[in-house]
Design goal:
globular; 169 residues; alpha/beta
Length: 169
Amino acid sequence: LLSTDGDAGALFGAHQGKTIYVAAAGPTLSDHYAWLVKNRPHIHLLAVDSALRPLSNAGIKPDAVVCIDGSREMVLALFEGIDLCAYQEVPLIYFPIVHRDVLGKWPGPRLAAYSQSNIYGDISQRYPRARLYASGSVLHPTIDLAVKMGAACVVMLGADFCFPHGQSH
């Protein structure tokens, strides 16, 4: 797929000086649904893959989705119950570790990127793609993407670094 999919670097600089909103899947994401619905036409919204279903259930479609997880079953489960046909124009930014079945299910454009990890050393020589910072969480490359897109300000929604109200994801 790397031979035919695009490069996430194509998005770099696309929103110079703008505010970019990043939706993570923490419980406080729901606190922002009404505001997102009201302001959605006027903002640029990136979503981590695990935020896609809650956003979709709230009637909110992001401008791009980021996925870096290699677990086929876990990521496919994130897409369950979502009408993916609505995402034909929404790019999926992914690392090549994402399972082929997940990539095949995505209806929109796919844009590849690599982390700084040595596991991408050989393949990055054959198929050069942009690098995004990653250190265990899909939130890392999503924020790095926002910064490289030119964001003057990155606003994180649902990026809960604790367990608000005793809740996890």
